[in-house]
Amino acid sequence: MAAAVDKKLLGLLNGIAKRYYYDETGITDEFLYQELFSEMEQANFNTILNRFENLVKTMVNSDMDFRQLEAFLTSQMKRREDALNEEQAAAISKFWKNHKTKIHDVVVKRTIFGNTLKEANWRIDLKAHSRNLEHINTPVAIYELELQKGGRSKTTEKIMFEMDAKQLDETLQKVRNIKDAIDAFVN
Questions:
Q1: Is the pLDDT higher at 131 or at 158?
Q2: pLDDT tens digits for 42-97?
Q3: Which backbone phi and psi does 95 adopt, to 5 degrees?
Q4: Which domain, by its residues, includes 127?
Q5: Among 97, 68, 85, which residue's Cα sits nearest to residue 8?
Q6: Quick one: which of 76, 146, 167, 174 has the most CB atoms within 10 Å?
Q7: Do residues 170 and 141 lie in contact, with contact meaning Cβ atoms separated by under 8 Å?
Q8: Which of 102, 118, 99, 130 is nearest to 157 (CA)?
Q9: What is the tens place of the pLDDT at every residue in 122-142?
Q10: C-alpha to C-alpha distance for 138 and 169, rounded to whole angstroms
């Protein structure tokens, strides 16, 4: 049978997510205390708040998948001091199931400072006009890129350009080099 969920803790975790990741400024320590733990001593609440803020930050910074979360919660339940109980672990698991993707998206958006690629379209055409007759009827790739300016901005810009076969081969080789560098870094 599944463990019951600590509803007050789930409310606290939701409040932490709203404050740190969803930019809701009304979620203060005092608000969380009054709404969820008013029967508790303020010092004890501050200890609980600090502990669960740190747990959430650890989960977010590690971008834990659910298998990692299960191992993390198991280790937290086996601690000698301040071990989580089953209800708390169930609340954390339920919280992460509901918020992992949304928080991940927020963190990614916050870390993008430059332009981002929103859309890419391409087609192959034959060159109809050229100064040199030998370039007429040669294939060219025409690209249209839609860029979103500066991470959180909604402003977009479209860029169009064309590449001949040689330029396309050079670009693809550079992309392969980037992929190899990323693979080497990750491994």
A1: 158
A2: 999 999 999 999 999 999 999 999 999 999 999 999 988 888 999 999 999 999 99
A3: -55, -50
A4: 116-186
A5: 85
A6: 76
A7: no
A8: 118
A9: 999 987 776 777 777 788 999
A10: 15
Which residue intervals of the chain are DSSP H helices?
7-20, 29-36, 42-62, 66-77, 86-111, 165-186
Residue 44: predicted pLDDT: 92
Using alpha carbons only, what angle is made at residue 122 by residues 150 and 174, rounded to the nearest 5 degrees?
Answer: 70
Q: Rounded CA gap, 154 and 109, in Å?
A: 12
- Nearest Cα to 176, choosing from 184, 165, 164, 186? 184
Q: How many domains are contained in the chain?
A: 2
Return the SS3 of 109.
helix
CA distances from 40 to 33, 46, 51, 53, 90 (A): 8, 10, 16, 18, 22
DSSP state of 116: E
- Pair (49, 126) in one structural domain: no
Which residue is it, tokens 């993390």?
72
If pLDDT is split at 50, 70 and 90, which confidence band does 113 have? confident
Instruction: Report the C-alpha gap between 100 and 82 in whole angstroms.
Output: 24
Which of 81, 111, 141 lies at the terminal end of a domain, its last residue?
111
Say how far apart CA 86 and CA 74 lie, in whole Å.
10
Position 68, amino acid: Q
Residues 30 and 75 in one domain: yes
